[in-house]
Amino acid sequence: MFKKLSLKGSASASNQIKSSLQRNIKNSILTQYPKLKDIEEEIFPKKVAIVQVKCQNHINLILVNSEIIFFNERDGPYYPTLRILHKYPDILPHVQVDKGAIKFVLQGANIMCKGLTSPGARMDVDLPADSIVAVMAEGKKHAAAIGVTKMSTNDIRTINSDIGVNNIHYLGDSLFTTPTLSE
Amino acid sequence: MEPIIVEYCQVCGFPREYCEYSASAAACLKANGPYVSADAAATTTDNNTTTTTTTTTSTGVEDKLGELKVIDDSKEEGHTDSAAPVVEKKKKKEDKSIITIEVVARNKKKNVTSISGLHLFGIKLADAKKVMANKFSCGCSVVEKPGLGEEINIQGDFCEELVDLIEDKYPQIPLTSIYFIEDKKKVPARR
Questions:
Q1: pLDDT at B56 over 50
Q2: Tens digit of pLDDT for each residue in B129-162?
Q3: Is 50 exceeded by the pLDDT of residue B94?
Q4: For residue A89, is it left (φ>0), alpha (ψ between -120 and 50) or beta?
């Protein structure tokens, strides 16, 4: 999603949004990621207003302290950025790809089923289709990408061809290289 | 839930363990030294069986890093070699006359294509203006730019079509001396 998007200058409108909307955003993020409830204060400090920046292709970025922490597309689900995921890796279910796939994942490629079923890869949790996952890598501690499963983990195992996880946000894309947006 | 503080590389911005996959792997290695994950360091102090496995993997990684470094060095050399003549070429061309085409966004949907340098090739701007207005069927005007001489402004975004038109109508202009200005950088229109 962010391969070609240049964040600088593309932000068409960044508003201090209404506090009711802020609450809405916060609530929808918290319901989506129930594990964040314990650390709500850390991620959304009460005194600091949430800023929403609208970018090209209907992408919205959620900023706190001018740090990008979440983003979504149109009215879709909110995704955490990789930096948040690195801090709190448990907020998303993990899938692991094998070593050979890392290179391609970091270039923004979608994750093929073969890369999720080979010996180096792991899928510990059973997931339905269209769930947001953290893409870990064999031999690495931190996530390499954030993706959305295109089919359920069972299907990935049985069909074992074609794209299994759509790559949404990966190390080295333009969202990762611009951690903060100053207004 | 405690936040994990991830060590990011100063050079490439990736977490340290991903440095080997970044474009600047060699530079990262130079700046940081080989990456040893905390797990590997911890397990080496544990019992013997695990140490053997971890050490083998870590050496494997180091070997790979070495390979990467070698490859990257060669690439860099290649780049410098190819970069040098390009710079020379550009310098030569700047002595000669060039044509620059720039698209300026007037508001969200509307653009103005401004083309400067035509007079350097002995083209009458008034004539060229007529030709372009005819070809693109749009407003077109000769504008005096202080310090830069005269240029032609065309309503709309025609930078690609303009190159074709110049190629057709004015064969005396070499295509290599036509440049686009994109993000304030000169980009050759045709390669």
A1: no
A2: 888 888 888 888 888 877 667 888 888 888 778 8
A3: no
A4: alpha
Please tell me if residue B180 touches chain A, with a CB cutoff of 8 Å: no
Q: Could you give the C-alpha distances from B190 to A148, B26, B91, B100, B103, in angstroms and in order?
A: 40, 34, 18, 12, 16
Give the chain B residue nearest A179 (alpha carbons). B13
Domains annotated on chain A, with CATH: 13-80 (3.10.400.20), 87-170 (3.10.400.20)
CA atoms within 13 A on the CB side of B115: 30
- Residue A142 and residue B17: Cβ atoms within 8 Å? yes
Q: Do A39 and B3 touch (CB under 8 A)?
A: yes
Q: How many whole angstroms separate alpha carbon A43 and alpha carbon B90?
A: 51
**Is the confidence at residue B84, as pLDDT, over 80?**
no
Buried b (16+ CB within 10 A) or exposed e, B121-131: bebebeebbeb
* CB of A86 less than 8 A from some CB of B: yes
Nearest CB neighbour to A88, from listed B3, B13, B17: B3
Chain B contact present for A68, CB below 8 A: no
Closest C-alpha among B85, B34, B24, B91 to residue B61: B34
Which chain A residue lies closest to B54 (C-alpha atoms)?
A: A139
Strand partners, B145: B149
In the DSSP assignment, the letter for residue A6 is -
A90 touches chain B (CB under 8 A): yes
A140 touches chain B (CB under 8 A): yes
**Fold classified for B97-188:** Translation Initiation Factor Eif1 (3.30.780)
CA–CA–CA angle A168, A173, A178 (5° rounding): 115
- Tens-place pLDDT, residues A87-117: 888 888 999 999 888 888 888 889 988 888 8
User: Would you call A148 helix, strand, or coil by DSSP?
Assistant: strand
Nearest residue, CB atoms, B21 vs list A35, A88, A103: A103
